[in-house]
Amino acid sequence: MKTDQTRPRRLSREPSSVRTAVLPPALAEPELSEIGQLLTREITKLSIEASTATRHALDHARDRAFRDGADETDHSLGQTILEEEAALAEQCATRLASYRHALKRLQDGSYGTCEQCQQRIHPQRLLAIPRATQCLDCASRRSRKRPA
User: Fold this and answer.
1) Measuring CA to CA, which residue among 99, 138, 124, 94 is closest to residue 24?
2) Please, is 105 exposed, middle or buried when counting C-beta atoms within 10 Å of its C-beta (0-12, 13-18, 19+)?
3) Is the pLDDT confidence value at 137 over 80?
4) Which domain holds residue 122?
5) In terms of domains, do 119 and 98 share one?
6) What's the total number of domains in the chain?
């Protein structure tokens, strides 16, 4: 029995720059058009949500300023509500900015290209998350680097 027949064959370890990556297919024009419409609808919806959340936070803050006879519990509850409304407004504004950024990329032709590595983002990822600006690999690396 020969020795090389009993041992598993070792795979060569080439540097990642030497490997040839298979690019996913690009999105077709009808899909891009559909994504553009979806992004526009989401921008409209989030604009309304962000505006409403901001208005509620400001109204609550104004109402708190004019409230007489409130005890410590009322103040604490009011502060909690104000913080939650402000956080909701901030989340809406952040999501709105990401959708606007994706629409801008769609309009300038850079949509579907990872902002990190410049490779094409897989169409299934873009269809699932239209505002995605990174490929799955770069997004995974980014999420692992974030502190918990």
Assistant:
1) 124
2) middle
3) yes
4) 112-143
5) no
6) 2
